[in-house]
């Protein structure tokens, strides 16, 4: 059994996509990030960066005490190694290297840049044209990188669906909010439609619908999400 601490954001969806693909038994524990659930002491005890997702694996491979993992990329790697799925094993170091490269590409590039795109385009209290243009253009550049990578390949790492695809896909889902045109990237569009149609993807996103349908981010929620400093967190 895996406890998943989750909210239906792109990073949250990555993990439900894996769990549904692998058929693992899991329980969702909602972490309402607009309400500040991510700052509760019991959550911070195993997710010290006050971000979801995080997991507690009650049946780790070593048979020991429950094992906690935070950071979505680390969780994907952990689950892939636990199950032996969606990541080439040590016998295929080149394939494994490629998957981890593109997983880190998403973690260090596509996610942060698209996240800033969302922030300045949707949530910032004032519209700053330079910031909006900067992150819309960088998101566009990254779409182009992925589109070129997918030329002649079914999935990011080649013929097989891997955690690299699960990491990137949820950050392409909000392409309209990112002020992109998916049809400008035909290889990316084909890949996106293929993953969107997978039964596990459909199931993963259905799991998040009850939470996604809650009210949108309020001004108080924005203060919680975007107003934190080291000092404010030590006071909680």
UniProtKB/TrEMBL annotation:
Occurrences of domain GST N-terminal (ranges): 1-87
Q: Which CDD domains match?
A: GST_C_YfcG_like (cd10291), GST_N_Ure2p_like (cd03048)
Name the record gives this protein? Glutathione binding-like protein
What InterPro entries would the database entry show? Answer: Glutathione-S-Trfase_C-like, Glutathione-S-Trfase_C_sf, Glutathione_S-Trfase, Glutathione_S-Trfase_N, GST_C, Thioredoxin-like_sf
- Residue ranges spanning the membrane: these are none
Task: Give the species this sequence originates from.
Answer: Tistrella arctica
Annotated GST C-terminal domain ranges read 92-216
Q: Which family does it belong to?
A: Belongs to the GST superfamily.
């Amino acid at each position: 059994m895996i406890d998943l601490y989750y909210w239906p954001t792109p990073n949250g969806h990555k993990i439900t996509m894996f769990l549904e693909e692998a058929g693992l038994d899991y329980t969702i524990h909602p972490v309402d990030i607009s309400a500040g659930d991510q700052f509760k002491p019991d959550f911070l005890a195993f997710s010290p960066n006050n971000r979801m997702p995080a997991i507690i694996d009650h049946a780790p491979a070593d048979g020991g005490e429950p094992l906690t993992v935070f950071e979505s990329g680390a969780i994907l790697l952990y689950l892939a190694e636990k199950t032996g799925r969606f990541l080439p094993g040590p016998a295929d170091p080149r394939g494994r290297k490629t998957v981890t490269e593109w997983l880190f590409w998403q973690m260090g590039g596509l996610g942060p840049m698209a996240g800033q795109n969302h922030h300045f385009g949707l949530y910032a209290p004032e519209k700053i044209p330079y910031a909006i243009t900067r992150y819309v253009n960088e998101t566009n550049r990254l779409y182009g990188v992925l589109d070129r990578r997918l030329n002649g390949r079914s999935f990011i790492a080649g013929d097989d669906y891997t955690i690299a695809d699960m990491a990137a896909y949820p950050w392409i889902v909000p392409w309209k909010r990112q002020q992109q045109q998916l049809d400008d990237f035909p290889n990316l569009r084909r890949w996106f439609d293929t993953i969107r149609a997978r039964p596990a993807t459909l199931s993963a996103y259905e799991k998040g619908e009850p939470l996604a349908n809650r009210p949108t981010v309020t001004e108080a929620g924005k203060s919680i999400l975007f107003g934190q400093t080291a000092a404010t967190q030590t006071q909680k």
